[in-house]
Amino acid sequence: MSGPKADLTYASSVQAGARRGIQECKQQFAWDLWNCPESALLLTAPGTLRAATRETSFLHAISAAGVMFTLIKNCSLGELANCRCDNSRNRQPGGRGWTWGGCSDNVEFGERISRQYVDAFETGQDSRAQMNLHNNEAGRQAVKITMRRVCRCHGLSQSCSLQTCWMQLAEFRDVGNYLKVKHDQAQKLEMDKRRVRAGNSADNRGALADAFSSITRTDLIYLEESPDYCARNLSLGLHGTEGRECLQNSDSLSQWERRSCQRLCHECGLRVEQRRVETSSSCNCRFHWCCTVICDTCTQVTIKHFCTRKHPGYHRRRNRVKSMR
């Protein structure tokens, strides 16, 4: 992952950031019809077309966010050359009972290098390239929006009569949660194909600028409706929901997780099958002189639920994809 303007010094951080984004994508969509499958995880390379769905918009945003987040984090840890924390706020006034100080995370650095690497893939001037660039930027904005002010108290016996504050990255899970909401609220951009054609003409650029002018930098956008994620379609890299695990009957689950069997199985014309799953692990370990550790092997039986086919002749409900929104 590198662009012509990118400094290869940061390549390992960029790669780690892309992996961070992918892991978060899988976490956020673990119990959705589209679960961030491996077929969707390669960032677009020049000359490669990919679906322009709302799921793709999230993937671009979370990948760009992951790269930016990791660059900033590694900069603050002192692991990157030519990068230092941001103390520009220290010359600005604070608030009542607190003042800017310390060393804020360097957002400008992470944003700049992330843009050089990630945006370098989008060399076209068509609507698909502009959509990807927009969603990349929305991901970077999510990192900035979720940052938090962190303060340290001063005063006798830490009475906190005065605080020194700086800006710090939130947890990346907060970034993922923010972008998942943006995914659910993503806007479909209706392009006039008679005006916008693939190419580099000034007319095309003007038409694209008009189309994107009403979209804020923090919103995700898409061009195409999502396919039927219930159905197996190997040409699109979709495996359907048959065989997928779902969750139910546990107080520790969120409402979204508890409804996963309804969403993944019933709404896709499948039934829920309960299975007993045995897992083996080491247990009762003890130290034996000298110098080995001896463990027993314990087997634990858990109940899991999976989507499986209904009896022959069952016709599943149509228009199910719309219900995932």
Radius of gyration: 24 Å
* H/E element order: HHEHHEEHEHEEEEHHEE
Discrete helix count: 8
How many beta-strand segments? 10
Judged by helices, strands and strand pairing, the structural class is: alpha/beta
Share of helix, binned: 25-40%
Protein name: Protein Wnt
Keywords: Developmental protein, Disulfide bond, Extracellular matrix, Glycoprotein, Lipoprotein, Secreted, Signal, Wnt signaling pathway
Function: Ligand for members of the frizzled family of seven transmembrane receptors.
Subcellular location: Secreted, Extracellular space, Extracellular matrix
Structure description:
It is built from 8 helices and 10 strands. With 325 residues, it is an alpha/beta fold. The chain has 2 domains: 219 residues, no CATH class; 89 residues, Wnt (Wingless and Int-1), C-terminal domain (Endo-n-acetylneuraminidase fold, 2-Layer Sandwich). β2 and β3 form a beta hairpin. The chain is globular. The two termini are 32 Å apart. The N terminus and C terminus are likely disordered. Keywords: Developmental protein, Disulfide bond, Extracellular matrix, Glycoprotein, Lipoprotein, Secreted, Signal, Wnt signaling pathway. Ligand for members of the frizzled family of seven transmembrane receptors.
What are the main properties of this structure?
325 residues; alpha/beta; Endo-n-acetylneuraminidase fold; three-stranded mixed sheet; three-stranded antiparallel sheet; 10 strands; disordered N terminus; disordered C terminus; Protein Wnt; Wnt; disulfide bond; signal
